[in-house]
Amino acid sequence: MRDDGKSIILITHKLEEIISIVDEVTVLRDGKMIGTKRVDEHVTKDDLTKMMVGRDVLFHFTKSARKPGKEIFQIRNLCAKNGKGLIALNHFTLDLHEGEIVGIAGVDGNGQSELCDVLTGLRKAESGTILLDGEDVTNRAPRFYIDKRISYIPEDRHSTSLAMNWSLKMNLVLKNFSKAPFAKNGILNKKTIESHWDEMQSVYQIKANCCDDTARCLSGGNQQKVILAREIESNPRVLIASQPTRGLDVGAAEYVRQKLLDTRNNGAAVLVVSADLEEILQLSDRVAVLYGGELMGVLQGGADPFAVGELMMGKRLEDAQSEA
Could you tell me the pTM of the whole model? Predict the structure, then answer.
């Protein structure tokens, strides 16, 4: 279209997209124009990031070496159907340990969503077992998993994780608003709820005008910070995060990744599902690869992207190793 003489305005926060196809870029931050650059003037990702966020951003994380703790979450031969009644998860088996991040790599639509839903009570398993500290917790209600300190950051934050027309302060206490210290004898303690919002807004750097604003008023990055605050501050034993940085700008994505690492360093077992292979390889201590709802193999974090890619295309780990 450009070559046909059309003028095109592209609104995006994807840096690779900007550098590869844009002729001129204007950066906005907090509603203000920060600057304009010609992309052919050797503009780098770092240049654009600093304009977008106002500071340097880490694109590559260095994880502290950490020996995983005891095995606390076991998934055994799990099978589940998708919304069309077809098998989407086929005899999936995986173990999670305290103090580690296990990444789930795979092309979207290979059973990742069904796996997360089953592990949090949003979908029934057809067969198989989920164990927490040796206790069978398969096919329980979502409330049961919440009470067992299994936290969930869903892929779709609008329909699954936030009440978009509710206030920010109430979204922060959605899981426990009927319990102390947020309520007593069925009556909400508004002062405590507002104080909790003030603390979380400061700790998680949530940009919002007022605790009574609705979740709909926030940017995607700040909505994700509200979810992070709620799920991480509940002191999870297991944290499941599905596509945690999808749709976020580089600054918000960096923040989310650091919080996931902090949660791992505090001793939780963290399961991260992401279509971003670079993200998976940087964050994960181990990488499990899903294809067609089946586990192709488990590799160590920092594995060769080509080796992971082979498994993502349907080659089993033992076959890849035998060909090496």
Answer: 0.85
